[in-house]
Amino acid sequence: MSNKVIYLDNAATTRVRREVVDAMLPYFTEEYGNASAVYSLAGGAKEALQKSRDTMAGILGCDSREIYFTGCGSESDNWALKAAAEAYRAKGNHIITTKIEHHAILHTCQWLEKQGVEVTYLDVDESGRMRLDELRAAIRPSTILISVMFANNEIGTIEPIREIGAIAKEQGILFHTDAVQAFGQIPIDVEELHIDMLSASAHKLNGPKGVGLLYIRQGVKIRSFLHGGAQERKRRAGTENIPGIVGFAKAAEIAAATMQERMERETKLRDYLINRVLSEIPYTRLNGSRTKRLPGNANFSFQFVEGESMLILLDMAGICGSSGSACTSGSLDPSHVLLAIGLPHEIAHGSLRLTLGHETTQEEIDVTVDRLKEIIVKLRDMSPLYEDFKKGGRERGGKKNVQ
Ligand code: PLP
Questions:
Q1: Looking at the annotation, which residues are catalytic?
Q2: Do 402 and 348 touch, CB atoms closer than 8 A?
């Protein structure tokens, strides 16, 4: 094996595909016109914008007029929630979401609460799945929006989106899903799943950073988020990021064309990783659902180990992983997702997320597990808790392995 970095943090961001870069390049230097201009130099940009919108609509199963390009997934989430709360104020002021959403949703909800909006944060079960009976029970006459993520960014759990969509439709409530982790990884058809709004982001599917989209079903009353020019049918002002949008559409097109094969390959590799870790490293648990899980996601908790130390030692071995979501690493608080699935603080602290991509190989997984085994032994040898545990007899505390 070479000194090449082993990149297992594809949920944080991904390497842009060469074909995507190639598709983007002409829009920096040749087709650089402003898509809103009338002269023919801008024609290429205008055409590329429409083509990209058509590509996205084809993939999501909607009309191209329902696709709005944004600056990132966080912007799409902010827009969906804030603008729906404003536009539907006369109908009600209650939003339902879950405790395991990304901070782009949770912090937006907290901001909305300060503006007088009431928010219910639903619990999840021990695998991270929302319970449909709790959703039904939380619905009030004033409920205007249900926002539940398609798949969780930390533990990879896929939520019961079809069922949530059906409940929302039956009750006449808007349904938004943050599909930033799911889009491009698993099939999504907004019509079939009764989704009214959906957020996605290019950099999670081997596209460029700084471009996202919000799908808004026709008929949904939603206000502009950025005020200014008439771009994006007057709903999102700002000169369009044509190279970024073209790159996003190219990445999505490749993701859709290769999805079946990637899903099979990554699921197999992921299960190989999970099985090796659980069978070779004692006092370890798998977080999230064994089956309702994104193909590329594995998330473990190792007892008697501190996550940050594990990441540093992995980094020294040339392996990139994560102990929480990209946005929360840097904070020492345990992840809100791991706490929500019922992990005690000390176990949540010893967690590691490894996320695979289309370039990940079995050899890389083998090297990672081999290094990880050594690192865990080393850290446990330094841990007073592990020392106590060994002295006090194993029967008192740790469970050998939990899935
Ligand atoms: N939602 C989820 C589930 C995510 O995983 C992320 C990024 O990690 C975001 C939203 C934010 O997306 P972006 O980085 O494009 O703002």
A1: 327
A2: no
